[in-house]
Amino acid sequence: MHAILQISYNLFIVIFEYIISGFTVGALVGLTGVGGGSLMTPLLVLFFKFPTAVAVGTDLLYAAITKSAGAVSHHKLGHVDWKIVKNLLLGSLPSSFLVTHYLKDIDLYSLQNVEIINISLGIALILTSIAVLFQPIIIKKSVKQKLKTNLNINVLTILLGIFLGVVVTLTSVGAGAIGVTALLLLYPKIQLRKIIGTDIAHAVPLTLFAGIGHYNLGTVDINLLIALLIGSVPGVLFGSKLSARIDEKFLRFILVIILLIVGVQLMFKANYV
After folding, report:
1. Distance of alpha carbon 164 from alpha carbon 142, whole angstroms
2. Residue 232 falls within a domain, yes or no?
């Protein structure tokens, strides 16, 4: 009887920790607007010691569910450019499928492949930190000058979709800060809120598609997913209210430092897997 109670207690503590993690990440998303993947996946890998593939797969479905409400809200407000979303998906879904197909044919838990995924995740986090750091500057400059290129804008959008499809499926990171920053460069005349709404609307089908692919690979922990979702909803609401009381520049600086440290740590960890 004592053993059963001990197991039940330990299970409760673990689930509670997952819920608190969901709340913490949700609060940070509400505070900063940066996608949860940049925060959730490293947390699961470095703190809870989940296999990187499982952390990525679970976070993809977590992102698909949590971003859905935001996509619907932005659509109702008219903040989604569905032509851009279509072009992004023309690139991202096929590339996501190819990455999933590649992952199916390899051992995701072998030391070499875990190292590859950790390095990819670390690079994605460092790119995200750079995007977060320079996003305010890009926003100001994008209003004043148009991107100079001979390539058709639709082709560039599809190419961006291909890039995001690969990065998001492999790391669960990239559909937030990186996507928004790239879209700002491609479409400087579109208002920021519409860029954000368009990015979220694209992220939902991409993360859902990639998440289902990971589920078929067996790299999704459903119990973990449920616990994270329970914690994240009140976390986002709390973070959104708190954001009005914290200096944005200070918050952005702290977030950049965290992402850089975690990104480097994951790359460093890869060398010792």
Report:
1. 21
2. no
